[in-house]
Amino acid sequence: MIFFHKRSWLLLILAIGGIFTYTQCTDTQAQETAMPDVIDYNYHIRPIFSDRCFKCHGPDANKRKAGLRLDTQEGAYAAFKDNPSMHAIVPGHPESSDAFQRLITKDTSLRMPTMSSHLTVSTHEIELIEKWIKQGAVYKPHWAFIKPVKSALPDADEDWVRNPIDYFVYAKMAEKSLKPSPEASKEQLLKRVCLDLTGLPPSLDMQDRFMKDNSPQAYEKIVNELLGSKHYGEKMSIQWLDLARYADSHGYQDDGLRTMWPWRDWVIHAFNSNYSYAKFVTWQLAGDLLPQPSKEMLLATGFNRNHKITQEGGVIDEEYRVEYVNDRTNTFSKSFLALTFECARCHDHKYDPISQKDYYSTYAFFNQVPEKGLFGTIDASFADPPNMSITTKDVQSILRFIHKKDTASVDVMVMADSSKRRPTYVLSRGNYDMPGPEVGVGIPKSILPYSNAKYGQNRLGLARWLIDPQNPLTSRVFVNRMWAQFFGRGIVKTVGDFGMQGELPTHPELLDWLAVDFQSHSWNIKRLVKQIVMSATYQQASSVTSAAQQVDPENIYLSRMSRIRIPAEQIRDQVLASAGILNPEIGGPSVKTYQPKGLWEVATSGRGSLMNYIQDHNQDLYRRGMYVFIKRTVPPPTMLIFDASNRDQCEVQRGRTNTPLQALVMMNDPHVLESSRVLASQFSREKGSVEEKLTRAFRRIVCRAPKEKELAMLKKYFEAEQASCIQNPKKVQKLMKIGEYKQDKAAVTGTTAAMMLTIQLIYNMEEAIMRV
Amino acid sequence: MNKLVKEAIEKEAMLATRRHFLQSLGTGIGSLAYGSALWGCSSGSKGQQASTRIPPHFGKAKSVIFVHMAGAPSQLELFDYKPMLAKFDGKECPQELLEGKKFAFIRGVPNLLGPKAHFLQHGQSGHWISDHMPHLATQADKITFLKGMYTDQFNHAPAQLLMHTGSARLGRPSLGSWVSYGLGSENENLPSFMVLASGGKNPDAGKSAWGSGFLPSVYQGVQCRSAGEPVLFIKNPDGVNSDIRKASIDAINAVNEETYAEFGDPETVARMAQYEMAYKMQSSVPDVMDISKEPAYIHQLYGTNPGKESFANNCLLARKMVEKGVRFVQLFDWGWDSHGTSKDGSVDFGLHQKCLETDQAVSALIIDLEQRGLLDETLIVWGGEFGRTPMQENREGQKQSFYGRDHHTEAFTMWLAGAGIKPGMSLGETDDLGYATVAGKTSVYDLQATILHCLGINHEEFTYPFQGRNFRLTDVYGKVINPILA
What we know:
Chain A has 772 residues and is mainly alpha-helical. Helix content of chain A is 41%, strand content 3%. The two termini of chain A are 56 Å apart.
């Protein structure tokens, strides 16, 4: 056996983390060094307590040890039951604060956190706690539950700032001794704002127009034009569709067809019509409960029916019905409040003030739907009741934004409340068949107390509560999510968790200023978007200096613009649009484009119309990425590879991975090859030198003129390929057959094929799929 | 043994060539990336929580091959021998077994169904193995049974999710993802978690059974297909060969180098490295997935048939993968859901057919790993997501035309073999009718804890912070099954 070196040849160099990279680092920038003058409970102390103490001395009454809770002032200051002369915390006196003494004692049997917890508190943290107690051990409510107020704009470099956002950003930069980056080049700026507002690259015409316009308003003109574009609504919708877990199939085992796309068309319409966020949210949560609801209002409520629905025989009806109500409750809390309510489904929340009873009180709002856990098997319906039929007449009159393509009416699921109130019980350990005490409707009171008299006892009341100016969360959560969309990172990084275990805001005053400003300007979304893109912060260059990389690798302090790999759907859009073959239709039933063979067939229960993947043809092949059919159990592979949501549940933030599978898609996906072919064939009919053509392709795809060196490299590659292609007509024939887009026979030449490969190379440039 | 040595020498020579090739590939700027920028994110998460990543020391097992018979095979026809059940065949099921119980399809009072197989004891261990599994019977002394398995999910998808992710609901990382996350890869050319499915269909739980949940998506299992393209988009388009591809990747990365010079973004360097990796995978994956070059005696051993999708092929592929350092190989074979609603779905004929398709191959896997010295560093796990009832199924209260059993949560059998496991043991016992576990009760979490243990991972300490708390595969449950450990 001496010859048998098992695995001896393996390169034991890399853990997988080194092969793939994941750009969403989860580390907080630990600022261990500085000792602040004033210790703030929320920013300095609570993170330590929450992480190391609250599990046993926090909100969960069932897990509380020694009867001590440290998450409230009353609990921490109270005398011990078994020894009334002792207190966990005595304001001003660390020496008589037992909790503090337990942190510093040498006696390991007394020391906290216990040995068995594997948790420790650092020396710096102990010093912070000591100073905080000396300063009076002042407790404050969790930051996110305190109503935001606008603070005065801090001092900043008046030459740099363009709007209020910049004052806050500048002040933070100055704190860290960072300086803003210069303004981005016009080319970069145009690409950036086009991708961010419409998800489409600027056309050559638009590039020329913008480059020639030297007026001070040139950029603002473009911004206004983009905000008015029909594609603005598409771009804005994608995040909402993730959060609303929109899909074209029901999910679970059978995963049959559903027709919720008219609801998706409504979302696009709502963004394009600039519905206020208050209206947008109210209609979706409670459109059916508004006085004399219109069909449009009813359609909006489809939001709460987008969850998965089972069609599998043999399941227990109530178990699944309860699952749907849970899904609505979780989606509500995560998307509007950025709180993790689902933790309280089975027990009191371990960190946040959400009891299990609170959970079921919110659940009660969504528990009134006259629905079944299992309505019928796969062929029973594409839209289980309660539902609504949309006819051609509707589309011609009131619902003009729906892109219905034939005369058949289409059914969509909508919300309704039963006339007879269904009682809601706390479900022990979250089990559908273990009801405990009955509860009424409600919301955890530490957010904003819910009054039945003031708001009402149904979802409309819930919507009113949500947009109540006193609500500390609604505006902050939305503004933060929008911010993250443009900067790649929220002011609160954990966009789905504003709770105790979420991250603290990096720019708390800015977040609050924006939240109040948004709310007090009628929840005007386009105004907010414009505010963001008009800021100097947004218009900075995105180059990273090594100093900035050192001080701020994650770009928390925004001394440069972030570079972001564009989302999955937009990669497709970018490829098709730059080749000039994008079909700009808006809305309608989702489409099935090229997909490797056999994916659906191996994942089917053998029932229903989605058993086999039947690809569409012609113009349907070139629709935008957001219209690609999402079958939940087998989502489109190219989308998943680029981190799109599988729409299983509410998702407020996608991951951003960088993997070899992405390289394989860009190199081998027929869409990229076909687009390269079409563009190359078009060039074969156009006049101009090779350099001119390469420049044109480069500008369409990368949205800037190539540098001399880049052009030389491309030309060299083109020439080598040209020589080889001309030698090998068979290869040319094969290459130019990729994709169904009609091929002009005369263009099938070695030169065109070489151009096709060169264009494909440009698509594979890192910069091609980056929002710079 | 001569054949094997010859094969090994040939393989070494082949690999040496390839290694040289790969090394020369890595001399571009891409190779620089491995050292620096790619690690840009490794500074960990919040404070202490970062320390949960496993240090590079191993347990007895370096790799796992988890063979999941999706649909749930009947323990009563395979390993859990119940002569008493035969005696009461056709009698009404005692009321006390049914009270307060729920079944997927059984309604009212069903009749007991005697075992539809012949059992014999095998080897030194004296394991009872039915005549459905004659090949496995020859390996009896190498395997260890868990006959007291139970679960709390009686539908396929949730039970499979529980088995693989520790939760019946979606959203948790799978076992293989946890393991890849914790231990990384031993082969820079292949993903560390690979999945193969046979039986004509993916398991009911779909991709979530090998999903990465809240772990970074790079840890999700990469499903390879034994027919068609092994990894999606891995094949170059017609008209593009490997040389052209290499030239284009060099050109792409040369241009990307310019981009890096301008923006200084480490992501650009990472992207360049991914193009190199993609290129390596384009040769390494089809290579590992190609069984046609295996010698004839290997094909005879497994009963393989290159180019077709089969469980046998997947077993051979699993061996090839662990041999090349893949950390976790997940096999699924669909078709074990013997309800008795059809001939193919019966516990006599249908189950026998499934055994004919799989028995030889899975036994070959044990033999082949052992002869390569890999069995002592590879853990094999075999089983379904739950068990089957000792009662004949009576769907909708009707008599079935074929012998069949419903889903059953209270007792089922799994087996383990290889690294870290004491061979030839049997743990757990069911009552005389095979209805419920009465000794050696083993939960799904216990099994998961044990698998992690064999890999050198403490399941209670191996956590990942998500939504404000530390999650682990086994949630708050699970005990390592000490009696079966070597």
